């Protein structure tokens, strides 16, 4: 569990150190800017940005029933973040499996990528696609209601 928060924590720690140095120079505006930037970086790389995570077995069962894609991802992955942000609200229509929290999800990704944990790996109709274009993933979603 702590592994997923290491990068956001590092951003907050670095931001605090930079802000402390900046405030000691007597530059409050620059300090505020640094803090905001580092807090935003920490939030963007945290699991909080992603929709509710699903266990791999549950995601596979639900996907088989309704045909929605499964996204295998991990915190700190810039390609996962890009996919999530480009999908916008429609990202909630996918099943998100955090491979750092779900060993079965990590095994699925390794099986699809010759032993590598390359993410995002999107599984559509049982077929894996590694780092697909977000526009293509959006096309795989059912029409929004």
TrEMBL record:
Recorded superkingdom: Bacteria
Annotated TM spans: 30-50
Keywords annotated in UniProt: Membrane, Signal, Transmembrane, Transmembrane helix
Cleaved signal peptide residues: 1-19
Ranges where the Glutaredoxin domain occurs: 71-127
Record's protein name: Glutaredoxin domain-containing protein
Organism: Streptomyces litmocidini
